[in-house]
Every structure is written in structure tokens, then in C-alpha cells.
Amino acid sequence: MTGTRRLVGLLLVAFLGVAAPIGAAAAAPGVPTVDDGQATLRIVIDELVPAIPGPDDVLRISGRVISSARTAVSDVSVQLRRSESPLGTRQDVGQVFGAGLTPATGDPDARVVAGASTTVDASLPPGGRGAFTLRVPVADLGFTEAGTYALGLEALAREDGVDATSVRKGVVRTFLSWYPPGSTVTPIQLVWLWPLADWPARTADGTLLDNRTPAELSPGGRLDQLLQIGGRFRSTVSWLADPALLQTAAGMTQGYQVLQDGALVVGDQEQQAETWLTELSDVTRAAGLRALPYADIDASAVTRAGMSNDVVRAVTQGPAVASSALGSAVVGDLYWAPFGRINRPALDVLASAGVTTLVLSADAMPATDPAQPTDGMAIAALPTSVGSIRTVLTDPGLTKTLSLPQRSASDVILARQRFLAETALIAQALPADQSARAVVAAPSSVRWAPTASLLSPLLRATRTAPWLSALSLQDLLTAPTSSTSRQRAGYSSHARDAELGEDYMLRVSRLNARLDVLSSIIDDPTGISEPFAEALLRSESSAWRTEPLAGERLLTSISEGLDEETARVRVLSVGTITFSGDTGRVPVTITNELDRSVTVGLDLRGRPALRLSSEPLTGIRIEAGKMASVDIVARVVGGDPLAVDVQLLGPEGESYGKPATITVTSTAYARAAAWVVAAAFLAILVFVVVGVTRRIRKAQAARGPSGLGR
Fold first, then answer.
1. I need a surface site. Which of 163, 359, 557, 692 has the fewest CB within 10 A?
2. How far apart are CA 577 and CA 271, in angstroms?
């Protein structure tokens, strides 16, 4: 069997040796690839420096080779490859990145870099690993013209009993952009959108339902890292923030509680929250900060649910909340559509609410002519029912790159080099005299979690790469709109399905209605209705698209809070009320445990309703902390006890809170029954007397005169 496998291997080597010269992208002579396309050696890159090389630099690549082969492999080595010439288009980036072990169209990294190889290990067992380091003077890479080149790291090895010589067992590909001094490249302007937002799981009384936000605001947390990285490049990034996050951080500085395992725990991150807010205020003082709508509301879902007023409130209240938290004026005329898509009704509502800038993915507004290029055209006009608004179009390729896995140093390096390659190819493709030369880099979500090892070099590249120059969002918005004709791509079923669900929004709608009734009975609801209204806006956040269970928990907590607040105004009456007739007065006691006066109505509702008639009372005013007693007239039909709900009402006759239950009976029907029995007895008695009398008379008549003569 072993001999057969060796023979197959030799035949394979011979075949590949013949086939190698065919095609410019064929494998290098003497370095055949495995025939089944399955990599058995995985290459992990731990370091690739410099990210943007200069002519006198030395390229250093270090990493590890990890074996997943079923048997030991021998003579393990790594060598460096590159493309014959610079890549031509952005599409080439995707093809290089997705090329496998044996690409059908040939290796994109066809040339072996002479002298750029190193031995890893004489033998690697299954699961074994070996380290490597390559040092190559950039001058030895043989670049003849400026541009972006594909790089390949190829793992070579021999499997005993299978391979006669070392063959390719694994490969990883990346990019290196080479623009030496004197290169003729006109920089493109790169706008970095830098959003700060959290998952707003905070109840109406300020309790945090989890410890996520405090942890993210603390040193080393997600939000702290974004602030620290952005702060080092404060003139490069354009800051955006969710006012609900700033409000939470400001509230934490005054003390806060967290719900953990069903118990309230006092939080201990007050100082960290204060430090974070202070630093944010400092780093955004010069560059400025724009507020997103409050809680990053899911405008499409909320509008579809018929609650467009909430969208308007989120837009109009956001700047005031953010300004209060930071202690300085914050502009808030921008909406970032979740995942870069928005439906037309929500767009119209946002525009009518005062939104003047919309952030969409460029995929959402393609060119009317598919052949028309749109790279570099980051601003477009989008028509709405109240006029056109400016639309910032994020680059889908850069968004995808920022969303690549970042679990390891290797992932980060590959993402970093791809981002640089994408931007370099955009700059290369655009005519130097084209007025629109701006690209927007932005994550797919405002709640992003990138790593510092990715962002820091990318932001430095924005300043140092010869094909890039930094541009602020404000400057972008003052640029003229591109003349390229665009169209709305439509709102797909996939985008619709990503919204907050219909059942979820129905729960929100019902809670909104309950809050409206509570607010309507309080003579001055200030300070009571606002916390619940803001909590409900937080429940409408697009954050819950990806974490629906957390949104459900927030809704449950809001509902329980409304129950408690509503129950402070309630009916105390219980027991049985007896009418002496079919009509009577029902005494009702109402308590108001709020710290302000209320005005309510009152209604009696029989079960069944046909047995009770009553006119509701209105305008019952109860002072703060007091009780009031009223009588309400009712008429009962029938003598059996009747269950009656005593229901408080709002000003429009809507039910308020849970009803109290009493029992109503009437003695009128018992007396009536007694009179009927008495009348029947008298009637029977009369009937008997009349019958007896008739019989006596008949007997006397029968005896007549003859009876007298005896």
C-alpha cells in the first residue's frame, strides 16, 4: 500500500512538473501543490512590519506553522511569494483574499521572492507547531512600480510515504502597498466615523439590568478603548455618540444600582464614568461631537408600528440630553441607519423631525447606471417628502474589512493590510482631477468592538500613507454633492426581517398607551412620565435587533415599574353592597399615594353587564397623599348577587389601572317575592271560602220546603 502511495506521489510530481510552465500564475518550478486542495499546515502571522514599507526598510514577517495532518510531516519550511505586478482593481483584493490552496485560475502570488525562505522544523507531528521569522530588505522584493501587491506565505513540507519532495501544504495571503517617494498618486480623503454607543439596558428608575456599560466605560473596556484610540487621533476621527449612553454615564457619577441574579447591587464605577465623560468632553472640544437620536432608535421598526411620534422625540430630545451630560452644546441632526438601510416611511419621518444628514451604506444608493463607478463619491442627495437631505455613504468594502474577525494577531494583521490595500486601489483608480475623492470608513454597527492593534495603525496610515489624507465629517458635508445619478436600492425582506419584531413592538405600543393614561390623570406629570418615556425609547433601540432577549427584559422591567406607579392611585373599596330597592348608591374610596394631585373618573361594570346600569363619574380630584370617597348611583336587575368591577378612568374614558371588585345585591326582589306569596295565599283562601259558601247554599236549596214539613 505504501509503495502504491509513493508511486502516486511520484506520478503527481511528474505531472505537475510538466504542467508548471502552463500559465503565468502557475506554481514555481520545483514547488508543486497538493492535489486535493486541503491545507494540512496552517500559517498564523504574528507580526508583519512595516505595514507601509519604505525603500530602505526591512520587511519582517514572523509567525507559526500549525499541523493538522494525520501523520507527521517532514522538512517543514516557509517561503515568501508575491504577485508579478500590482493589483489593478478592488475586485482583485477580494479574489486574492479568497483564493484557496490551489486556485482554479492560478496563484495570485505567482513569483517566489528569491532568498525569502526559512526552515521551520525537520518534522512536525499531528497538532505540532513551529515558529518562523522572515527578514527581507524591501529592495529585494523586486517591486518595479508603485502599487499594491499580493503577498503569499507558503508552507512546504513532505508527508512520509506520500510525497517524494516538499509540496505546498498551506498558504496565507495578504497585501503590501508600495508607494516610494516620488510616486505619482493623488491622495483620497478618508473620513473616519467614530461612533460611541452601548446597549441601553436601563430602567425608568435608572437601574442597570446588567454590568455591561460600567465594564465598557472602565479602563480597558470597549468604550474606554474607543475613547483612548480616538483621543490619540482626535483630529482624524469624526465623533458621534448616543445621548442615552452619555446620560447613563452622567447618571452613574451620582451613584447607581445594577440588577444581578435578581438582586440590586450598588455599582462601584462612579469615578470611571466621570473620568470617561471628562476625557470625552476634552477630546471632542475642538473637533466637535454629533449626537445620534436618543438610544439609537430603530426608526424603521418604530414607524412601521405606528409610533412615529417616538422617532420625532428621539431626534429632537437627543441633543438636549447629550448637551446636559457633557455640559456643552451638542448638535444632533444626524441619523445612522442600522446596517446601512432604511425604509421610505421612516426616512420621511426623520426628515420631518429635523434630520439633515443620513448615514447609509453606499450599497443602499447605487448608481442608476450600473457601469458608472461610484468610488470616491461619498455624498449624495436623497429625496424625502419634505425635501432632499444629505446622505453620507459609507464604503461597503471598508466596512466589511473592519468587520473581519479580530480574534488573533493574525486576524488583525490580515484585516489591516486589506484595509490599506482597498484604500490604495481606490486612490489609484480615481482620476487625479476628479473633484469627488472622498471615502467614508465606518463600522457596520454603532456598537462596534474593534481592537487597538487594528485601529491604531490604520489611523496612523490616514496621516502618513501617501495615498490618504484625513477629512472630517463636517468638511465632507460642506463638499458639493456628486452629479452621479443614484437610485434607492429598495428595502429588502432581509432588511425588514432585521428590524425589531412585530410582537415586540406591539408590547412597546401597549406600554406607551398605559403611560399615556397614567400621565393624563396626573395634574402635573413632570418627573414621573419622562423617566418612563425615556425608558420606552431605550426599549426601541436598534441595539435589541441583535440581542432581543435583553430588549424583552427591559420591557418587562418597564411594565413592572408602570404597574407600581399606576397602583399608587387605586380603588380601596371591597365587600358587598346591598340595595334596599333595585336602585342604590355605591360608596367608593379612592386613594392617591403620589406626591401630586390627580383627576380621575369612575365607572361600575357588572358581570354580566346587562344586569347593571350606571352613569360614570368624571372630574374626581384627589390631592397628593389623600383619599376621596364618592357615591355612584347604580340600578341592579335581578335578586342574585352581582360581581361589579369598580374601574378608574382617564380623562377620555379610558381604563386606568386594575379594577377593584365588589358584590352588589338588592332586597327589592325578596320583598316582591313575599308579596307575591301573600297574594297567592289570600287568593287561595278566598277561593276556598267561596267554594264552601257555594256548597252550603246548594245543600240548603236541595232540602227546600219539603224538608220543613217533616
1. 692
2. 60
